[in-house]
Amino acid sequence: MAQAIIAGGCFWCTEAVFRDVVGVSEVESGYIGGSVADPTYKQVCSGTTGHAEAIRVTFDTATISLPEIYDVFLGTHDPTQLNRQGNDIGTQYRSAIFLVEEDQRAEAQAAIARWNADHEGHGAVTTIEGPATWYPAEDYHQEYWEGEGQRNPYCLAVIPPKLAKLRKSFQGKVKG
Asked: Which domain holds residue 158?
C-alpha cells in the first residue's frame, strides 16, 4: 500500500472522485501545507492559515500506480486555475500535489509535464509541495458525498460532472 496527498479544490469533491477509483482502499479529507497546528475547517476556510483542503489517498500499487493516481487527479479537476476551483476561491482551494516522501517529486513533475503536453496552451498551475504535516478534517467531512453531500446543492452541481469525467477519461480505473 502507498499514499498520495492531493489538493484540487473542495475536498468533498476530490474525495468523491477517488472513492470510485480501482485500487484505492481509503480516502481521507484533511488539511496540509499551512502554518497553524491542528487547524479547524473554519480556520482553513478563512484563507489565513495557508492550508489547502486536500485528500490523502491510500492505494494498492499492484492495481494502480502513483503516476496513474496523479493522472486521474489532474484529469478530474481544472489544474489551470490559480487558487480556485469554480466558485471556490482562495489558496485553500489551490491545485497541489503534496509529497508524502521526497522520492514522489519526480513522478509529480512527470505527471504535470504529461498533462501540459496533452493540453498545449493551457498550462497547469499545480504546485508540488511538502512533505508537510497532515491534519485529518473533522469527522463530518469524511465520506461527505455518500452522506450529506447528496442533499447538498453545491455538491449536486459539482460532483456529478467530476464523476462523469472520471468515467469517460479513465474507464479502466473506475470501480464496478
From this structure: 2-173
Active-site annotation holds for 10: yes
Q: How many structural domains comprise the chain?
A: 1
**What long-range pairs does 31-34 form, CB within 8 A, spacing at least 24?**
31/134, 31/135, 31/137, 32/5, 32/7, 32/98, 32/129, 32/130, 32/132, 32/133, 32/134, 32/135, 33/7, 33/96, 33/98, 33/129, 33/130, 33/132
pTM of the model: 0.96
Strands (E), the chain: 2-8, 24-32, 52-59, 84-85, 88-89, 95-98, 127-129, 134-136
As a whole number, mean pLDDT of residues 63-90 equals: 96
